[in-house]
Each structure stands twice: as structure tokens, then as C-alpha cells.
Amino acid sequence: xxxxxxxxxxxxxxxxxxxxxxxxxxxxxxxxxxxxxxxxxxxxxxxxxxxxxxxxxxxxxxxxxxxxxxxxxxxxxxxxxxxxxxxxxxxxxxxxxxxxxxxxxxxxxxxxxx
Amino acid sequence: xxxxxxxxxxxxxxxxxxxxxxxxxxxxxxxxxxxxxxxxxxxxxxxxxxxxxxxxxxxxxxxxxxxxxxxxxxxxxxxxxxxxxxxxxxxxxxxxxxxxxxxxxxxxxxxxxxxxxxx
Lengths: 114, 119
Known about the structure:
The structure holds 2 protein chains of 2 kinds.
Chain A: E1 4-7, E2 10-13, E3 19-25, E4 31-37, E5 43-50, E6 56-57, E7 68-72, E8 75-80, E9 89-97, E10 102-105, E11 109-113
Chain B: E1 3-5, E2 10-14, E3 19-21, E4 24-26, E5 32-39, E6 46-52, E7 60-61, E8 64-69, E9 74-79, E10 88-96, E11 108-109, E12 113-118
Parallel strand pairs in B: 2-12
Antiparallel strand pairs in B: 1-4, 3-9, 5-6, 5-10, 7-8, 8-9, 10-11, 10-12
């Protein structure tokens, strides 16, 4: 199974600032995903990040607010821009193992916006 | 669009007993995957079990097994011999098996069931 790490594990940020979350995988993967989990809620897909192409965003999420980078097959970043308290959530990175067809998640980044 | 419904927001089970978590889904597709994920307080999403829709045999992983009823679109999780470490949020999830673009690998999650294990 893929081992995924995220940095930072948690952060408290002020309204109007931006935070970049890093996701590192221990093996090369084609597709990486970013999910948001609002307090007490389920997971919602923000975008799919493929290496070498623009990220594909789900309805309700835009690139200006959540820019994503995918410079290589083991790394991605998600930036939460111009933050507001409504952005307080856990952000999770995820990858698919195409051999096993299973999807793995990172430990998440808990973001609190004050 | 696919939807996943978990009708039990919270459940509890006595240690060493058996508990079943319910999940229903709605889809027009014939080929797909179903998953149960566990999320303990540490936040780490852990894959518990996976079921391919084309397989009639119910998946099992040690103390965890599913009852997959394709016609009824039901996918329940049974935890046998419950342990204190089983306490967590459990999410049922759906994913299409057909690829038609980047969004095809999206997991659709239910709202989760919080499982408590009583010593």
C-alpha cells in the first residue's frame, strides 16, 4: 500500500491569509486527489491532480481559491487562498493504487481559520 | 449522480459482540466498487474492506465482512468480536469502475456512522 505524508499536520491561520499543504507519496502515482472534510461531515472531493496537466476541479471549487501543483509523480500541493472561517476543515490527500485498485489517504491537515 | 446513504449516525456495541453498520446507495451503473473506510480520532482514513460489484461473493477481511445485495443496492458491514480499537467513524463509499475522465475515480462518501465500543 502507498504511504502518504502531509505537512503541516495542523495549523491555525488568520482570515485573509493563504496556506499551502504538501502531500508526499512513497511511490509514483498517476492520480492524486484532494478532499475536504468539514467539521462533523463526510469527505468532499476538491480536485483531481494529474502530473503534467491542469488539475480538474469539482463543482463548487475553483482554481483561484484552491490552486494545486503537481510537479512530479510523488508530490502535490494544495493552497487554500484568502482564507475565511468557512475554510476551517481537514484537508486530505489521496492516491489510487492502480494495481490493487484501492484508494489511500494521507493523515490530513487540520486547518483552523480565525 | 451516485448517492450513498448511511442511516445510522451513531451506534454502540459491547466489546466482543457483533455489530452491523448499514449502507445503501443509488446508481444507474452496473460496474462499480464499494468500500468501507474507518476514521479513528487520529483522522487517518483506513480502508477496511472493498467489494467489486461484479463479484457475487461477499468480501471478508478477518473480523470484517460485508453483506452485498446488488439488487437492493445495499452494502452493510459486519464487525465480529468487536474490540476497543474498532471505535471510529465508519464511512461507506462508492466509486465507478468505468473511466471517462479524471473525475471518474471520485469516491462518493456517505455521512458516516460513529461506532462506540463499550468495555
